[in-house]
Amino acid sequence: MNTAAKFGGLGAVVAMMLEYVPAQYDLYVALLIIACGALTAMIPPPHAGSKWAVAYQVMTTIGLNIGWAENHFKPGQSGVRVPLADKPAAKQAVASAGIPVLNKKGKPEQANGNT
């Protein structure tokens, strides 16, 4: 599913949910969404076993961090930054070291490199 479709679907869900919020509270809901988005950009994710991992995931969801806005650092995962041209070689080096390469959903990729 592409990012535009995700945003379209999520936008419809958010708009539908906002219909149930009394008009005088719309501003506060919008501020909560903005604050959660800003906080997830500033706060590094906790380690996977932390009691804060679930709270962090909830905060990223409320902050609408999906698609291109999604945080690249997640609880229990690292992000190794390499030039785009070196990505295939880096993936092969990591896989040859016996370290699973994870796809966008945090699951190990198939042996042929497809997600």
Question: If you had to describe this structure to a student in words, what would you say it looks like?
Answer:
The protein is an all-alpha fold and 115 residues long. Helix content is 46%, strand content 0%. The chain has 4 helices and no strands. It has helices spanning 3-18, 26-42, 53-62, 87-96. Helix 2 packs across helix 3 (53-62). The longest helix has 17 residues, at 26-42.
Q: Which helices and strands occur, and which strands form pairs?
A:
Blueprint: H1 3-18, H2 26-42, H3 53-62, H4 87-96
Helix pairs in contact: 2-3
Compact overview of the structure:
The protein has 4 helices and no strands. By secondary structure, the protein is mainly α.
Oligomer: single chain
- Report Rg: 18 Å
How much beta, percentage-wise? under 5%
Figure out the total of helices. 4
Looking at the structure, what is the overall shape? elongated
Low-confidence stretches: none
**SSE pattern, N- to C-terminal:** HHHH
Q: Helical percent range?
A: 40-55%
Q: What would the average pLDDT be, to the nearest integer?
A: 75
Structural class: mainly alpha
- Count the E strands: 0
Largest sheet: none
Q: N- to C-terminal separation?
A: 13 Å
